[in-house]
Amino acid sequence: MRNFGYFEEDYTASISEKGLWRRIYNYLKPFLLPFSGAVLLSLFVTASALGLPWLMQQAIDLYITNSSLDFELRMAGLGKTCLLYGGLICLGFITAFLQVLLLEWVGQSIMHRLRQDLFRHLLKVKLAFFSKQPIGRLVTRLTNDIQNMHEMFTSIIVTIFNDLLRMAGILCLLLYMNLQLGLFLCLFVPLAATLTIIFSRLAREHFRAIRKQLSRMNAFIQETVSGVTLVQLFGRTNDLKREFETLNNGYLARTLRQIKLFGTFMPLTEFMSSLAVALILWYGGGEVIRSQLTLGELVAFFSYMRLFFQPLRELSQKYSIVQSALASAERIFHLLDTEPEDKNDPVSVGNAPLSLIGDLCFTGVNFSYKADQPILHDISFTVKKGETVAIVGSTGSGKSTLINLMLRFYEPDSGTITLGGYPLSEITRNQLRKEIGVVIQEMLILPDTLLNNIALDTGRTRTEVIKLLEQTQLTKFVANLPQDLDTIIGEGGQAMSTGEKQLLAIARVLCRNPSLLVLDEASSAIDSRTEKLLEQPLEHCFKEKTVLIIAHRLSTVQRADRIIVLEQGRIMEQGTHAELLANSGMYSKLIALDFGQPGLKTFP
Description:
Distance between the termini: 32 Å
Order of helices and strands: HHHHHHHHHHHEEEHEEHEHHHHEHEEEHH
Mean pLDDT: 79
Largest sheet: 6 strands, mixed
């Protein structure tokens, strides 16, 4: 098992906070109208909250402590004030309810679009990218990271706006009600702002570390679960337990560091709140005793103070969510910025597709996956239209790399590859891959019916698929299934043998009717009996098609018109089966290794 813990180490923050907010705003822009409506509702939510202490002051000063009025007038006034108080509570409830609905709709819509963009982008990323990325890490981007951003949109952004608006409104009201008491409260504003700035600078790094460790855990779990057979077969259970314990402990440690930061900020905010209460109780109480302040005003002051410090106490938690979301956004946009494979695709001119039926030519092709480790050296050969050519060689000789270059998963370092007279660089990848049908050893089976697994996106009808199966002698294979073409195969469905999967792969490729057919180790994992079953379908594949066979097992290449022998990325010899045997060269040695023929030398 690989140690996926190192995969995150190459990631560095490449987007500034300003840049992050700009890109987040681009996703918010289509929903500005409902979002603005939610912001507008904040005015009503804030007004209803700020009106409650004022009504409490009126009730105390005008009716409860006002002994100059008759009892009936005092009770009547108190009743009207209570009705207004209830009305404000209802207004606050209704506006807050509507605000939550709008924000949830906006947040879900933005996350839906972001998730679609990210998944669509992943399908276009270069193949080399996936060889360096654990699947669990990518799953984390599509699930956990996007969910973090969703919480910010739905419950934080406008809530913080509500809180800031409420705090500004409270300060203005307190200064208007009593300048001295208002100034007392203003002393705590710079201190609160300083604490928030310090907290914000520390929180981002903590949450980035948490997201990184979570990605490592997800990647490790994904790899372990997908390879659980090998884990049990080779007795790696205890080793993996220890590795996961290390990862889990790392996640716990990073989370606890964030909690400690949060736990430090909260008591400081509580201390400021208690200190403010003590000062205003001391000063305000003296003002009431001296009749410079009414009891109702003092009670209102305490209510406003509670409303002022409540968002401050919650601000650390809300800011934690924002910083966690920004850490997730940073990683999501970093992934979206990876270069897609179709970036350098030629622009289609007109509506007529290129005619790619013709020769496949490699001319002076050199290629390396890493700059200092060349894989192919000056490869030149031509597969003529309608010809069947086999490429053989030992493991690591560069056979599969040729297919990767043909399909433009990678681009050659130098040299050219043409199909039908057109350089591959002038052909869009989609059009190229429609013309090249590849039958590989391992294939993806969808958890769907056999019919849908064969037809895929070709639009072939049931009748056309049945006719194709008859032509390729695959009807016996289908007849053995419980529900013929409607049998559910794949995960949770009908289990398939290796030979049946190969038959399905052949049917799937022929359904696309490509002009160039590539058999990449198509029969290397099946026995001789199953290989016999594949002969008729393969014969049908070869008719009127250009065929390229990549194989370890040389029994599958003897039908080829020409055989090319690769070794260490170079063409060593080529010719027919008989010609190469007569030359007693490398092909003869490969035959000796494969069939154990006497009299032929093997590799040293």
